[in-house]
What we know:
Oligomer: single chain
Number of domains: 1
Order of helices and strands: EEEEEEEEE
Strand content: over 45%
Strand order of the largest sheet: 2-9-8-4-5
CATH topology: Immunoglobulin-like
Low-confidence stretches: none
Number of strands: 9
Number of helices: 0
CATH class: Mainly Beta
CATH superfamily: Immunoglobulins
CATH architecture: Sandwich
Shape: elongated
Largest sheet: 5 strands, mixed
Radius of gyration: 17 Å
Helix content: under 10%
Amino acid sequence: MPAAFLPKSDATPAVLQITGIHPAEGKGGANVKLTGQAIDKSAVVRIGGKKLGALVIAPDGTSPSGTVAPLGLAANTKVDAEVINPGGRSIVMLDGFNYLCDT
């Protein structure tokens, strides 16, 4: 019996990624924009373990932006950026943001 093949799909699901943070450093209260792909409109976005305030995620899933929370850390501390999509799929950019101070 010949093998049956499924039709080839031209659409490959995008892989969740963080490709950048702009600006790459700032204080608590600074506005930042992450770039990436496959970021769900309901995702949680954190810098230094705290959620970004006033989070807005582009409809195409490539750029969440928001306000960095005060982290209570020493000046010039490298912290991680993290995106968590519904269902638990997540990505972390290790040491992706240089936290300057609380204010």
